[in-house]
């Protein structure tokens, strides 16, 4: 493994500069950096950056924003911060037309049910056969067969 | 100890009064934070005039948003969140992502030709200001909050709506990016 692979990530060095590492990690990283030719210059650069930031000149606006802001608030007529309007709970009004789709759907379902029901009833009547014909299946001459003699079929009503 | 007006003088108390519509209390809050907000916006935008205008805008937005302020939130981080969003909106609107060199545009009062002041400003600092302007806004904002405003990772997370792990990694990337820009400008 190369030395670079053993090195901590840059964000650990950055956190070290910020004092954001907890004790065991900080001590271990300090020890590593002390003997690492790769991490030591990076840490030095980070620390130098911090020193330079600290030396940045302070800048002052030279104006009183409180006065300017207060004037703008007064000019806009906003005398008091307004809370977000909460949605008001209004009593529900009866709106008959809102039920129209449901009523239509119900009517269609009922009609369809009645139609299918009557069709089934009719179908059962068509297929119903006289009892004697149903019993004919058990006679010597099955239904649809030719009569061997006229008398043979007359007794069955054919 | 309570003041004659019934306030305890703490920042939370000023905020509570401002939320109730007390403009004087809000003015007090503006005075407490105006320099920091202005300084941040100046370094984000690179222009004194823009910073003047946007500082006012940020405070007006804060006044309007006060009812949404949660007492558990720190007022400073809440305010910086508004200021930061104001700065990013302005940068997007004006397409100032790529800044012109510092010498051409930096017109902050603090850098006016004042012999005494000039003597204090080192070459390192000038170079840093130039490099900061070349930095991506997301890197610039996090570095300013950490190095100039001295915010903790948690506070930066509140301002930028980031978790602390992201703050940590973004800060490292921002530092590396700034060091690279400085190295290029030196060479």
Outline:
The complex is a heterodimer of chains A (158) and B (187). By secondary structure, chain A is mainly α.
Description:
The complex is a heterodimer of chains A (158) and B (187). Chain A is 58% helix and 0% strand. Chain A is an all-alpha fold. Chain A has a domain at 3-54. In chain A, helix 2 packs parallel to helix 4. The N and C termini of chain A lie far apart (106 Å). Chain B has 187 residues and is mostly helical. Chain B is built from ten helices and no strands. The chains are: A mainly alpha (158), B mainly alpha (187). Chains A and B meet through helix 2, helix 4 and helix 5 of A and helix 2, helix 3, helix 7, helix 8 and helix 10 of B.
Structure class of chain A: mainly alpha
Describe the global form of chain B. globular
- Per the principal axes of the C-alpha atoms, what is the gross shape of chain A? elongated
CATH fold assignment of chain B: Rna Polymerase Sigma Factor, Chain: A
Oligomer type:
heterodimer
The Cα radius of gyration of chain A reads 49 Å
Mean pLDDT of chain B: 84
In whole angstroms, the N-to-C terminal distance of chain A is 106 Å
User: Largest sheet of chain B, if any?
Assistant: none
Strand content range of chain B: under 5%
> What sequence of helices (H) and strands (E) makes up the elements of chain B?
HHHHHHHHHH
- Total beta strand runs of chain B: 0
- Total beta-strand segments of chain A: 0
Order of SSEs of chain A: HHHHHHHH
Q: Structural class of the helix and strand makeup of chain B?
A: mainly alpha
Q: What name goes with the CATH superfamily of chain B?
A: RNA polymerase sigma factor, region 2, helix turn helix motif
β-strand amount of chain A: under 5%
CATH architecture of chain B: Orthogonal Bundle
Total domain modules of chain B: 1
Number of helices of chain B: 10
Cα distance, first to last residue of chain B?
Answer: 59 Å
């Amino acid at each position: 493994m190369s030395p670079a692979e053993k090195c901590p990530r840059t964000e650990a060095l950055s956190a070290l500069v910020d004092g954001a590492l907890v004790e065991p990690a900080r001590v271990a990283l300090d020890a590593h950096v002390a003997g690492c030719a790769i991490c030591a210059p990076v840490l030095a650069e980070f620390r130098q950056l911090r020193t330079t930031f600290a030396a940045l000149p302070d800048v002052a606006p030279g104006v009183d924003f409180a006065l300017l802001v207060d004037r703008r608030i007064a000019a806009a007529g906003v005398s008091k911060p307004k809370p977000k309007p909460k949605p008001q709970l209004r009593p529900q009004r009866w709106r008959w037309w809102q039920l129209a789709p449901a009523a239509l759907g119900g009517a269609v379902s009922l009609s369809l049910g009645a139609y299918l029901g009557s069709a089934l009833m009719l179908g059962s009547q068509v297929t119903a056969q006289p009892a004697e014909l149903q019993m004919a299946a058990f006679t010597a001459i099955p239904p649809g067969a030719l009569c061997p003699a006229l008398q043979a079929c007359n007794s069955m009503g054919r | 100890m309570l003041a004659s007006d019934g306030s305890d003088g703490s920042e939370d108390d000023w905020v509570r009064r401002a939320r109730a519509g007390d403009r004087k209390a809000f003015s007090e809050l503006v005075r407490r934070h105006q320099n920091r907000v202005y300084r941040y916006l100046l370094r984000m935008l690179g222009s004194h005039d823009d910073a003047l205008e946007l500082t006012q805008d940020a405070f007006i937005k804060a006044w309007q948003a006060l009812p949404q302020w949660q007492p558990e939130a720190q007022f400073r981080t809440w305010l910086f969140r508004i200021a930061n969003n104001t700065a990013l909106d302005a940068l997007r609107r004006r397409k100032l992502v790529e800044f012109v060199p510092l010498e051409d545009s930096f017109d902050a009062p603090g850098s006016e030709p004042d012999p005494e002041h000039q003597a204090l400003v080192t070459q390192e600092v000038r170079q840093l200001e130039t490099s900061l302007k070349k930095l991506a806004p997301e890197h610039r904002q996090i570095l300013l909050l950490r190095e100039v405003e001295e915010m903790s990772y948690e506070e930066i997370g509140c301002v930028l709506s980031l978790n602390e792990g992201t703050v940590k990694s973004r800060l490292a990337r921002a530092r590396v990016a700034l060091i690279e820009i400085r190295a290029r400008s030196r060479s």
